[in-house]
Amino acid sequence: MTDLSAPHQPASDVRASYLAQIQRRRLYSGITLLVFVLLMVSGFNTAAARNGGGFWDGIGNFFDYPSELVLEAVSKIDQLPGHFLTYLPALIETVNIAAVATLIGALFAVILSLLATRGLAKYPRLIGVIRRFMDILRAVPDIVIALVLIFILGGGPVPAMIAIALHTVGALGKLFSEVNENADLKPIEGLSSVGANWSQRMLLGVVPQVAPNWLSYALLRFEINIRASAILGFVGAGGLGYELRNAISWGQGRYDEAAAMFLLLFITIVIVDQLSGHYRERLTHGASAKGAVA
Description:
- This protein is mainly alpha-helical.
- The chain has helices at residues 11-50, 55-58, 64-75, 80-115, 127-139, 142-153, 157-180, 186-193, 198-232, 240-250, 255-293.
- It is extended.
């Protein structure tokens, strides 16, 4: 209970205390900025010292390769349609790797997210273990997993698919579990009262509530996985990235092919981004928007 008889602090003291806090905050911000700048300078100097070609001396040549690639592509622009057809199967392979990895990763993420959600988990004591497992899958870069799998299984699309799927499980599992926590528990309690088991409660009581958000996140992850699949091709995982690495390694004379593959990948990512954005909007806001119009 507040003591009304206690003397009030003068306004001047309040103002002085506030100004002191502001000054301390500015001091701490300045120190943080100074440390950040020093770390940046130190990092660049270390990179310059360890770079065989000389970091600062070579940075002026940064645009040499892009300009050579563009000039050669323009000089052979009539051959671009043929290159598009040549590398279309590799692009389809890249998209297939991303699609299969997203599908498998999303399915396992659904199961793990339900087992890792407080109030929904079948085994509450394992929530921490499952969450740490998903953290590990999310923390390890997919390119590291792919390199290990390529060493074990050999090159090709299978190691890339497995690597991306494992990373997808960790990423989507975290997002799905956060969505699950917002689910209404009343349908679950009703199903439990009539004797439904855990699987039935999840399937009938939780999934209808959270499925639109699950699909939205899965589509967003599909976009990311297409780019990841192309990058993994550089380490021998197949697809368009593998062909792009070969064209870049060959150097001049195949820059037009590299440009065609860059364009194919860019166009594909833009199309997938637009389509997934459209369907994500319909999944998350379409029903309410239609209801408002009606």
